[in-house]
Amino acid sequence: MFKEFRDFAMRGNALDLAIGVIIGGAFGKIVTSLVNNVIMSRLV
Question: For the residues 1-15, what does the mean pLDDT come to?
Answer without folding.
Answer: 76
